Structures are given as structure tokens and as C-alpha cells.
Amino acid sequence: MLPNLLSYEPGKAEIWQGRSDSLPNERFFQRVTTQDVRTANLANSNAPVFVGFCSDEGIKRNAGRIGAAQGPSILKEELARLPYHGNKQFIDLGNIYCEDEQLEFAQQQLASLIAGVQQQGNKTIVFGGGHEMAWGHFMGLTKQYPDLGIINFDAHLDLRPLPKENYGTSGTPFYQIAQYCQQNNLPFNYCCLGIQPHANTQSLFTFANTFKVPYLTAEQINQNNIAQHLKFIDDFIAKQKAIYLSICLDVFAESHAPGVSAPQALGLLPWQALPLLKYIVQTGKVVSIDIAELSPPWDQSRKTARLAAMIVAELLELI
To answer: What predicted TM-score, i.e. pTM, was given to this entire model?
Structure first.
């Protein structure tokens, strides 16, 4: 049974539209059914499930550019139009909303939904929304996967300690996860690729070293060859039974991803990241994916949304 949710909206069929001249099942919009968690039955469907997390409260608390709450619906619209070359069906369970600044409640709702879907045996893809969703996403996975490994493509380590009010932000999710793991005698298995030294303070690198977080900077990915990157990934994945893959769109250069909370002039090019992302998914260990920080009000001609949709499409063909 899936949980009853508040601050929730079922999947909307009108979002999943595409070319009228497409042959059957050639595009994503023809492969997606929309459901309501109150009536959904995922048993034995084996369909990857889409969930939107419509929040930019964590970004607001982190003094970033707000707008990511609009991201999930726009990403779905762009994905809907793309050709699909696999043989799976997909389910859109709709969106969870952060209302009245109640981020912690929205994160709990996301965790409940992810846990319920995963217990039915379905993999999950979460569309954001600010990267604060990583805390709720992880909490929904950890009961079933206590030794979960996390791979984050991001310009930021997102290891900021909680402020005095003890409220999480878009910059704290992996610190919150580290704390949870420490309190529950679980390993904190986290690595990050695409880090920008000038987007992280020295104290964040100190936290990364304290938590023994392996990372690659964007400069290292640009300068080193792909064999070195794959070895870094292999060394991490070899120790994990299951992987949660998180992709923050600000890992990409601003020329490719202007529509994010914190754009990066020296970010990665898509063809630097995509082979690594596909390699990770092809290991068969990825149980859930999220894509964070799509902010349509700051996008240019939906450039970031189209990049996000293309990445999702590429990865879904490998799941």
C-alpha cells in the first residue's frame, strides 16, 4: 500500500503530450501513465516511477535564487516530447508540494512516498525542486537499503551544518544524512563529482575530509582522462550494494544550464558528465535517481530543462 499524502497532487495526463504524428510507443508521452497514490497499485508493474518535489524553500533558506518549485512540471513536459528507444512503461505519481514554508513536512511526505514505491519493487526518479529533496529522498530509501551509497554530481558539497534554528536548506542535505548515519551506526557512503572550489568554503572541504568524502573537482574532470574518472567511480561503487544517484544541474556550465539557483561559469560540459552517469547506471546498482535545481524562471529558452530531460531520457533507457 502507498501512503496517504497531504500537500500532494496526482499525476496530470495533460503534461504528457507530444507530436500527434508519432507512431505508437515511440515517445515518452506514449509510455507514461498517470496515477494517484490513493488508488495506485504498482504491484508487479516493474515500471520506474516519477515523483515531483515542488520546493524551493531550501533554496530560499540558503539565500539562493528561488524558482525551482516550478521545475518538476517543466521537466516532465520536455521529457514527454522526446523519443524513447527502450521497452518499458513509466508511471507518473504526481507531485509533492512544500506549502507554507513547511519544508520538513514536505520532506517527510517525500520519504513516505519513496519508501512505499520502493517496497513495491519499483525504482524511483525524483524531479526537483531544490536539492533539499535529497534529505527526504534518502530517508525514503534507507530503510530498505541501510548500506546505501550516494553519488552526487554537483558543484557544491552540500555539507553545510544546520543553522541555529536547526532547519535544513538546499545546502545541508548530505550533512543531515551524515548525522543520521552517525546516530544510527550506519556507514556514510557519499562521493561527489564536479565540485567547484570557489563555490565551497574551506570549512566545507574540512567537513568533507572529516566525513571521508571522496570527490572530483570540475577541473580534475576537465584535465584528467575518462579512465581515471571511471576508476574513481569503480573504487566507490565496488563497496556499495545499492546506489542513490543525485544530479544537481548546477554541476553544468552556465552556458548549458543557466536555469539553476547557483549558475557555474566553469561547470562541466554535458559530454563530460553523461558518459560517467551512464556508466554508473549500467552497473545495475542504481535504485533511485533525482535531478535537482531546475529553475524555470531563470532558464533561457528552456535550455536547462531540455538538458535535464535529455539526461533523464538517456539514463531511463539503461534502467
So the answer is: 0.97
